[in-house]
Write a structure and sequence with these properties.
Length: about 290
């Protein structure tokens, strides 16, 4: 999750035998006014080094924009650390056929390429794109942050993707909060069920306790879709002149719980305590 998926949370998740997700932008210097990331990958390199030092592996998903992979220094850091999975957040550079050489270079080093999508039908139109992907991350309409315009049936989307590619890695996310939800997605054809809100409200999450308590005092019905990005958010105060990804308001909301907003999904309605990651994972897997 943007501004939440950090090394501390990732290490706690990995310690419980799960695959954590890291977001590259969370480990880059950002201009607070423009929300533009620095091209300097020093902080990202440091974070990934910390992860591998503690775990002895590179078993995690690193989320990036395709634009970051056009920066030679950034690409070098990713090739240095070789995360198991690279999750592409957009298709901007995929319109350039030369960019596929970048993806092939990454894959030659054992890095699997996943594409996040809200609309499976859109990516299935492009056979060239699909041919180079190792899998997809399909995000349902009950997830936190950016979601589809209109309700989407996550189970049916998973089935559609599995029918299209039997060998794809399919990660499904959006509203999952218990073992029954995990089992439903796995039975539909997903390899992995991914959760954001559940772990954002864990003890190890970097979100301040005051903000976590305010989030848990609210419900999914209190959320609204904000901005052109159509992001599912719990709004404390409106943020004027926010950037496209609504990151300025998000930064304020995570810090204060009195201004800005936080991104939450439907799992919010099923969280009433701040628990350690170890307990959360035990409860999630007890019925599997």
């Amino acid at each position: 999750m943007n501004k939440v998926s950090d090394i501390n949370l990732a290490l706690a998740v990995r310690q419980q035998g799960c695959y954590p997700s890291l977001v590259a932008f969370n480990h880059l210097a950002m201009d607070e006014i423009t929300d533009r990331a620095s091209n300097d990958p020093t902080l990202l390199d440091k974070a990934l080094t910390e992860y591998s030092t503690h775990t002895g592996d590179s078993e995690y998903i690193l989320g990036v924009s395709t634009g970051l992979l056009r920066i030679p220094e950034m690409l070098d850091v990713i090739l240095k650390h070789k995360p198991s999975y690279l999750e592409l957040f957009d298709t901007t550079e995929l319109k350039n056929l030369e960019f596929f050489n970048v993806l092939k270079k990454l894959q030659s080093q054992g890095i699997k390429i996943l594409l996040k999508t809200l609309y499976p039908n859109e990516i299935l139109k492009y056979s060239i794109l699909c041919s180079v992907l190792d899998g997809v991350v399909i995000k349902g309409s009950k997830a936190a942050g950016r979601v589809s315009l209109g309700e989407a049936d996550l189970i049916e989307d998973v089935k559609k993707l599995r029918a299209y590619r039997s060998n794809w890695i399919i990660i499904a996310q959006g509203g999952v909060h218990d073992s029954a939800g995990i089992r439903e997605l796995i039975d539909a054809g997903a390899d992995v069920a991914s959760m954001g809100t559940v772990f954002a409200l864990s003890e190890e999450s970097s979100i301040p306790t005051e903000t976590k308590l305010k989030m848990m005092a609210s419900s999914y019905a209190d959320t609204v879709k904000i901005g052109q990005a159509n992001q599912s958010a719990l709004v404390f105060t409106k943020t004027d002149n926010d950037v496209e990804n609504n990151t300025i308001g998000l930064t304020n909301g995570l810090k204060t719980a009195t201004s800005g907003h936080v991104f939450v999904g439907a799992a919010l309605d099923h969280i009433s305590q701040i628990k350690p990651v170890s307990q959360i994972v035990t409860e999630l897997t007890s019925g599997l």
